[in-house]
Design brief:
Elements: H1 2-23, H2 30-41, H3 48-58, H4 61-66, H5 69-73, H6 80-101, H7 110-121, E1 128-134, E2 140-148, H8 158-167, E3 172-178, H9 188-202, E4 207-215, E5 218-221
Parallel strand pairs: 3-4
Antiparallel strand pairs: 1-2, 1-3, 4-5
Helix pairs in contact: 2-3, 6-7, 8-9
Length: about 230
C-alpha cells in the first residue's frame, strides 16, 4: 500500500512537472504550485493536503510567502526545512523584482519600483517604514528599513533618515511604508511626518521625491495626490 501511494505521488509530480515545463504556470491552481514546491522539500510525502491546508491558513500565496518562519511553523506538518524553502522562493522573487528596479532612474521606472515594494510589503502584518535612497541620477543606491512597528504604527525619526542619507551620499529619497489594514490612504500623521522629513533635509539639499503607502489592494503616492 505504501509503495502504491509513493508511486502514485511520484507519478502525479511527474505530470505536474511536465505541465509546468510545457505550458508554464498559468494553468495551475495555487495549491498545485505550492504542492510541487513542498514536494521538493518533502519528497516522500503526498504534499497536496498540506498545500491546501496552508492556503486555508494564510488565504493566498502572496500572504503565505510573506509569512515569517515562526508563522509558517505553526502549520501542522510543516518543518523548518520546508519553511526555509518557502522563504527562499520569496527571496528569489523579491531579488528579481528589486533587480528590475535597479540601474534605471526610479522616477522613470516607477512601475518596476512599485511592483517590488508591493511584493515585499503589502502582505506584512506589521507596519514597516523604509527609505529608497537615490543618487543624483535618481537611481536607487540603497533600500533600507528605518523602522518596524505594530499593526498600525512604525517609529520614524526624521533626523536619523537625513543622517543616513548623508552617510550614503544620497541626493534624494522616496519614503515608503505599508498599512497592514490594507487601506493605503495616508493619515494626518503620515502627512505631517513626511513634511517633517522634507524640512529636515531641505537645508542639506536632500529631496524627498515622494512618500508611497502600500496596501494589499494597491498603493497611494502622496505626490500624485498633491499632499506634498
Amino acid at each position: 500500500m505504501a509503495e502504491d501511494a509513493a508511486g502514485h505521488s511520484s507519478g502525479h509530480r511527474e505530470r505536474l512537472r511536465a505541465r509546468l515545463l510545457e505550458g508554464g504556470g498559468d494553468g495551475f491552481h495555487d495549491y498545485e504550485l505550492l504542492e510541487y514546491l513542498l514536494a521538493l522539500a518533502i519528497p516522500r510525502r503526498d504534499t497536496k493536503p498540506l498545500a491546501k491546508r496552508m492556503l486555508e491558513e494564510f488565504g493566498d500565496l502572496a500572504t503565505l510567502l510573506a509569512a515569517s518562519p515562526a508563522e509558517l511553523s505553526r502549520v501542522e506538518g510543516l518543518g523548518e526545512g520546508t519553511a526555509a524553502a518557502i522563504k527562499f522562493v520569496e527571496a528569489v522573487m523579491l531579488r528579481s523584482l528589486k533587480t528590475a528596479a535597479l540601474d534605471r532612474p526610479v522616477l522613470s521606472g516607477w512601475q518596476a519600483l512599485t511592483d517590488y515594494l508591493h511584493a515585499s510589503m503589502a502582505h506584512r502584518t506589521t507596519e514597516q517604514f523604509r527609505v529608497i535612497f537615490l543618487n543624483n541620477r535618481n537611481v536607487m543606491i540603497r533600500d533600507e528599513a528605518m523602522g518596524d512597528g505594530t499593526n498600525n504604527a512604525a517609529p520614524v525619526y526624521p533626523r536619523e533618515i537625513v543622517k543616513r542619507a548623508l552617510e550614503l551620499q544620497a541626493a534624494g529619497m522616496v519614503l515608503v511604508h505599508n498599512h497592514p489594514s490594507g487601506d493605503p490612504q495616508p493619515s494626518r500623521d503620515d502627512i505631517s511626518m513626511t513634511k517633517a522629513v522634507m524640512e529636515a533635509g531641505r537645508h542639506l539639499g536632500l529631496v524627498v521625491h515622494d512618500h508611497v503607502i502600500i496596501g494589499r489592494g494597491g498603493h497611494v503616492s502622496m505626490r500624485a495626490q498633491g499632499l506634498i
